[in-house]
Amino acid sequence: MKILLVGAHGTIGRAVQHALSRHQILAAGRNSGALRVDMTQPASIRALFERVGKVDAIICAAGLLHLGPLVEMTPEQFRVGLDNKLMGQVNLALIGQHFLNAGGSITLTSGMGNEIPIRHGSNACAVNAAIEGFARGAAVELAAGLRINVVCPAVLQESWEPLQSYFPGFEAVPATRVALAYQRSVEGVETGQVLKVW
Q1: Within a 13 Å sphere around the CA of 92, how many CA atoms are in the beta-carbon half?
Q2: 3-state SS class at 42
Q3: Three-state secondary-structure class, residue 121
C-alpha cells in the first residue's frame, strides 16, 4: 500500500511507521521531513495531495490540544484544539477522501479524555469526542468501499513523565501497542469504529 502518514515524526508516528514498514510510507509533518503540511490550512493539504497523488490510506497521528484550568481558559485557548486537532483532521479527511484509491481508508486520532475526563482536560474532552462523532457520521457517507476509523490511545509511556500529574492512577501504554491499532485500521476491514488502546 501507499500510505500518507501525517505526524510521522512524533512518538506515535514513528511507531506506526515501524508497524507498517512493509508498505510505502509517505511521511509528512508540520515542521520536519521532506513533505510538509499545515492541517489547519486546506490549501496546504491540497498542495500535499497534489504532490503525492492517489494513496491507499491516510493516517493522521497529529494534532494540538490545550490543557489548562477551566476557570482560567480563554476562548482563544479553547480554539487551539478546535482549529488544530479537530478541524485539522476533518480538513485532512474531507480533502483526502478524493485522493483515495478504491478500498482506501482514513485513520484519525482522538484520545481517552472524552470518555474519562481528566483535570484541566475540557478542551481534550470536547475535541476527542467530536473527532469520534465525525468519523461515525462520515463512515456512512464515504464513497463505496472507502473506510474511516479513529484510534483512541491512552497516555503514552513515552510521554508519561511530563503528563503523569494529569493521569493519577492511570496506566500508560507503549507506542508500539498503540501502533497496532493503526495497522488494524489500515489493513483490516472495519469502518466507523473507535479503536481504543487503554
Answers
A1: 33
A2: helix
A3: coil
What tens digit of pLDDT does each residue of 159-192 get? 999 888 889 999 999 999 999 999 999 999 999 9
Three cell numbers, residue 130: 467530536
Distance CA 26, CA 34 (A): 9
Q: How far is CA 95 from CA 17, 66, 87, 108, 138, in A?
A: 23, 25, 12, 14, 13
Give the type of residue at 75: P
The letter for the amino acid at 133 is: G
Where do we find the cell 463512515? 139
33 pLDDT above the threshold of 90? no
Average pLDDT over residues 103-130: 94
3-state secondary structure of 86: helix
Alpha helices in 1-121 (DSSP H): 11-19, 42-52, 75-81, 87-96
What φ, ψ does residue 142 adopt, rounded to 5°?
A: -60, 155
| CA–CA distance, 124 with 180 (Å, rounded to integer) | 23
Quote the pLDDT of residue 114: 83
pLDDT in tens, 67-92: 999 999 999 999 999 999 999 999 99
